[in-house]
Amino acid sequence: MAKRDAAALFLISILMMPVAVFVSTNLIEESVITSKVRSFTTSQYQTSAPINISGNSELASVAASGIGTRSDPYIIENLSITSSGTSISVRNTNAYFIIYNCILESGHSQPAIQFDNVENGQIILTGISKGLTTSTSGIQISNSQDISVSNTSIYGSWNGIHLYRVSNSTITNSKLFSNYRGLLFESSSYCQVVNNSIFSNSNNGLEIWGSSHNITVYGNSIGWNGQPTWEFESNAVDDGDDNHFDDGVSVGNTWSDFNGTTPYSIVGSGGAIDSYPELLEDTENPVISGPLDTVIDVETSGNTLNWTTFDEFPQDYSLQIDNGAVAEGRAWNGGDITIDIDSLPVGTYSYLLTFYDCAGNSASDEVVVTVVSFVLGGIGTELVMIASGVTVACFVVIILLVKRLS
């Protein structure tokens, strides 16, 4: 009797070994479903409704801090505003204030930030996106003076920044790219444009209209503008008077179309020149940090692929799934790219993302996504069901053998 029991147990262990291996293999497969998403979030920002300010008293009521003086300006900060109209509008103020560290997405019909009859306003470290078919500006400043825009990024607008009847103002250390026009001065005077990057705008990078005068432009990287609108680059146009494209001492601008001939002549009736031009070059490929190959459950949600990217002069990217083009020429702002993969049916997919910059440099990354169906509370795949059926059949065989031996 003991021998028969031992034989039965031996048969059970032998027959169960493939099932145990099968289940453990699928458990290991399931364990590789890890989140490597480093997507851009606005957790540091507070979601806000659009802000409409008229007068110093309303400015004081909206500000998070400050008293409106030069040494202690009102601060509007850390806001994320998505609006079909203007995100932040300020009118009829002369108190000192700063719009700081905000992310603004605005609709096509209104500028994201609008100043009218404003003095002593600053916009610092703010990102503005408006969508590539918009017909208005990222920042519209009118009838104002002593305005400063710095460390701000604007793309997807008709005009990145439009200054109309503005004086004694500065645009510094900002990126204006992938707009129709990067920067426009209209009837403005005594302004400075210093240390900005103005690139990949489909019309003119920088444009100064008639009746604008004493605009000083130096230390900027200006390149690859006017394409594909024109068959040639159109980095700057000056139809104003007495405007200057260097600091008058030793610093001019870098231009992607500089041919080595000094001075660099600015297109337009103003007859302006850059006496200290340099060639703007970019030989660096985009930098990409992508996700690992991954396995996901078809029943789960919130699955994404995220690429952390960087390039000094980003342009666009293309996406291919299984060698078939899905999206080409999508605007790329140099930041993260996140792709939703929740809708994929069971199968294996290859995602190939290629990033391009304005100078024609590129870099690619490929990720394989395997979509499976996990069942039985995550124990394994449908194959486990097959293994379970095999197990039942094994038990039937064992019972028959035991009965026969008895």
Summarize, please.
By secondary structure, this protein is α/β, with parallel strands linked by helices. It contains 3 helices and 37 strands. The strands form 7 sheets. Strands 1-4-7-10-13-16-19-22-24-27 form a 10-stranded parallel beta sheet, with no helix packed on it. Strands 2-5-8-11-14-17-20-23 form an 8-stranded parallel beta sheet, with helices on one face.
How do the strands and helices of this protein lay out in sequence?
Blueprint: H1 2-31, E1 46-47, E2 51-54, H2 56-62, E3 74-77, E4 79-83, E5 88-93, E6 97-100, E7 103-106, E8 113-118, E9 121-124, E10 127-129, E11 139-145, E12 148-150, E13 153-155, E14 159-167, E15 170-172, E16 175-177, E17 181-186, E18 189-194, E19 197-199, E20 206-208, E21 213-218, E22 221-223, E23 236-238, E24 254-255, E25 264-265, E26 273-274, E27 278-279, E28 287-289, E29 294-297, E30 304-310, E31 314-321, E32 324-331, E33 337-340, E34 347-357, E35 362-372, E36 374-375, E37 380-381, H3 382-405
Parallel strand pairs: 1-4, 2-5, 3-6, 4-7, 5-8, 6-9, 7-10, 8-11, 9-12, 10-13, 11-14, 12-15, 13-16, 14-17, 15-18, 16-19, 17-20, 18-21, 19-22, 20-23, 22-24, 24-27, 29-35
Antiparallel strand pairs: 25-26, 28-30, 30-33, 31-32, 31-34, 34-35, 36-37
Helix pairs in contact: 1-3
